[in-house]
Amino acid sequence: QVQLVESGGGLVQPGGSLRLSCAASGNIFRDYFMGWHRQPPGKQREWVATITRGGSTSYRDSVKGRFTISRDNAKNTMYLQMNSLKPEDTAVYYCSTIPSTYWGQGTQVTVSS
Questions:
Q1: In angstroms, what is the C-alpha Rg of the chain?
Q2: What is the per-residue pLDDT across 17-73, written as a single tens digit (0 to 9) for each?
Q3: Mean pLDDT value across residues 95-104
Q4: Which backbone phi and psi does 89 adopt, to 5 degrees?
Q5: 16-46: buried (b, 16+ CB within 10 Å) or exposed (e) per residue?
Q6: Checking phi first, is residue 55 left (phi over 0); if not, alpha (psi -120 to 50) or beta?
Q7: Quick one: DSSP state of residue 99?
Q8: Of 12, 47, 91, 113, which sees the most CB atoms within 10 A?
């Protein structure tokens, strides 16, 4: 069993930065690929980024060069550094294992002036 808890969301102006964290319980965090997803208001949930057990990463095109996914297996924690934020990044952000067996409860990110 893995429990995931996101934190770090909030209100930020366009061009600003936020760092999201996803803390995992249990001792099997390091066994999973992990991912970030988001659900913009009125839209379906979409994939944002993935990090493998070994640290290889992949991103959706719209966040490449602005977002960085990382993980610290010793702390059972995954991160999403988000820079140069845009209003269209506004969404509830979720972390999950991959396969998507386990999900966090989500954290709200609002980009607005």
A1: 13
A2: 999 999 999 777 888 999 999 999 999 999 999 999 999 999 999 999 999 999 999
A3: 92
A4: -85, -5
A5: eebebbbbbeeeebeebebbbbbeeeeeeee
A6: left
A7: S
A8: 91
DSSP characters for 22-53?
A: EEE-SS-GGGSEEEEEEE-TTS--EEEEEE-T
User: CB-based burial of residue 89 (10 Å sphere; 0-12 exposed, 13-18 middle, 19+ buried)?
Assistant: buried
The mean pLDDT value for 91-100 works out to: 95
Q: What is the distance between the alpha carbons of residues 21 and 94, in angstroms, rounded to a whole number?
A: 10
Distance, in Å, from the CA atom of 29 to the CA atom of 75, rounded to the nearest integer, reads: 9
Whole-angstrom distance, CA of residue 39 vs CA of residue 55: 24
Residue 75 above 90 pLDDT? yes
Q: Which residue has the tokens 């995954």?
A: 78
